Amino acid sequence: MPTPTGRSNAVPSPHRRPHVLVPALVLASAVAALALAGCSSGSAASGGGEQGAEGGAGAAPATAPVDTWPLTGLPVRRGSSSTDHPVLVTKIDNTGASAPQRGLGSADLVVEELVEGGATRLAVFFYSQVPGEVGPVRSMRASDIGIVPPADATVVTSGAAAVTVDRIKDAGIPWVTEGSAGFSRDAARSAPYNLFADLRAVARAARQPAQRPADYLPFGDAADLPGGRPATSLTARFSGGHATSWAYREGRWSVVDGYAAEGDAFAADSVLVLRVPVGDAGYLDPAGNPVPETQLDGTGEAMLLHEGRVVRGTWSKDSLEAPLRLATRAGDLRVPAGRTWVELVPAAGGDVTVS
Fold first, then answer.
1. Domain 24-43+79-205 -> CATH class
2. Domain ranges (residues) in the chain
3. Mean pLDDT of 35-53
4. 146: part of which helix (H) or strand (E)?
C-alpha cells in the first residue's frame, strides 16, 4: 500500500477508512504535472402509464444480504473474484482522445459527470471483477465527493488540482495515483491520455479485510417496476459540446457514440438519469475554463430506463455521503439488479431526450 501522508482535521465517518495516499514526493509531482496537463479540457408511475416526477423521498435502502454484489445487486456465485480489496473507482477520460478506452466491459457500474469545457469524465466502479489494464486514467474532481463515498471506495486517478486534493482529503476519500503499484504510461499515446492502471496490481496492493459496502443503489426486481412508457433510445446532453446517446437492443442498453475498445464496451441493464445541480468548483483549468462541480445531494428529477421502457420519478440524497433514494408517486422506486450506468445531467444547461 502507498504510505499515508496525513489526515484531515475533519472527524471521519465511522464507516470510512483513512485516506491512503502515495508518498508525498510522488503526489507532489503528480499534482504539479496535473497543473500542466491532467486537468485540461477534453473537449412513477403505476399501471401502464408514466407518472410525473413528483414523489416522496423514498425509504433508505435496507441492509443488503452478503450474497449479492453491492454495485449490481446480482448474486455472488461460487468462484467469483476475491473481495479482499475495496471498490476501485477509476477516473477515465471520455473524449475522442481517450479512444480506445480499456476496461469498461468489466465494470459493475459507471457514473458520467460533467467536467470543464463541456466534456464529461467517467467514474468507473470495479468490484465483482478486477481487470488488468484500464484507462486512460485521468484526474479527480470535487464532484467525486458525492459519487465515491457511498461505495467506501478508493479512487484510481492521475491526481487532481491542489484545491481538489485538499477537498478530497477533507472528505476522507482514499486514492492512489502514478508511482503506486500498477500504473504505467503507454508510449504509443500522447500525454495526458497515456496513463493506465493494472487494477489487479492495484487491488493486490490494497488488500485488507474488507467489509462489504452497502448497496450503492436501491436494488430490486424488474417485475416490481412501474409500467412506465416504451423507450428504445436516449440522448443525455451535458452541454452544447457533448451528449451521450443510447440504444436498446438485444436486451441491453448500449452507448452508440462512445470510445470503448471493440468488444470492451459497458453493456447496461439499466440507465439511470439524474438531473442534478451544477455549481462552480472555484478555479480554472490550465486552458482558462471554469471547472464545474456536480452537487449530488438534495433532490431532483430522475428517469430509469430498463428493458425498453422508461419510468420517471425523483431522486434524493440527504448528504454527499448518504445513499441515493428513488421514488415515484406510488412510492419507492428500485433499480433492477444488474449493471447500471448513471448519467448526472445538469438540471440547467443539460437536456434529456427519450423516444
1. alpha beta
2. 24-43+79-205, 219-354
3. 35
4. helix 144-147
Residue 264 contacts residue 103 (beta carbons within 8 Å): yes
Instruction: Please tell me what DSSP assigns to residue 143.
Output: T
Rounded CA separation 153/288 (Å): 31
CB atoms within 10 A of CB 302: 25
Amino acid at residue number 30: A
Q: What is the pLDDT of residue 288?
A: 87
The continuous run of DSSP H or E covering 199 comes out as: helix 199-205
Which residue in this structure is represented by grid cell 500542466?
36
Under the phi-then-psi rule, with left for phi > 0, alpha for psi from -120 to 50, and beta for the rest, what region is 172? left
For strand 278-284 and strand 290-294, is the pairing parallel, antiparallel, or unpaired?
Answer: antiparallel
Per the CATH hierarchy, to which homologous superfamily does domain 219-354 belong?
YerB-like (3.50.90.10)
The helix (H) or strand (E) run that includes residue 185 is strand 183-185
* Spatial separation of the C-alpha atoms in residues 270 and 168, rounded to whole Å: 29
Instruction: Quote the pTM value.
Output: 0.83
